[in-house]
Design a protein that fits this description.
By secondary structure, this protein is α+β, with helices and mostly antiparallel strands. Helices cover about 30% and strands about 30% of the residues. The protein has four helices and four strands. A four-stranded antiparallel β-sheet has the order 2-3-1-4, covered by helices on one side.
């Protein structure tokens, strides 16, 4: 498969996860019509109240790069940055099978 899959771990400052989730709303709207973005799912960690996970899937490296340099991504940094404990951790994965691929 040539799809690009990223799992991102966003660790927030203590008690700030709701602010990050709210701050993600414009990006969640943006990706609905973003070319090449196949899946963009936000998940709240059940065991750590200060962690948000993102599952992202793009149809190509070019689509992933376009997402990362979009105006929506630039605005996202300003909206959630004050609530983050550090930079997101990105895990790049190769999908090899499963339902929904």
């Amino acid at each position: 498969m040539s799809n690009v899959v990223v799992i991102a771990k966003l660790t927030t400052q203590p008690g700030k996860r709701p602010d990050v989730v709210a701050g993600m709303a414009p990006m969640m709207d943006h990706v609905q019509n973003e070319p090449g973005t196949l899946k963009y799912v936000m998940l709240e960690d059940q065991n750590d109240a200060d962690v948000v996970w993102m599952y992202e899937e793009y149809d190509s490296q070019d689509s992933f790069s376009a997402h990362g340099t979009s105006d929506a991504m630039k605005a996202l940094g300003a909206s959630i940055g004050p609530f983050m404990a550090g930079r997101p951790e990105l895990f790049f994965c190769d999908p090899v099978g499963g339902k929904g691929l």
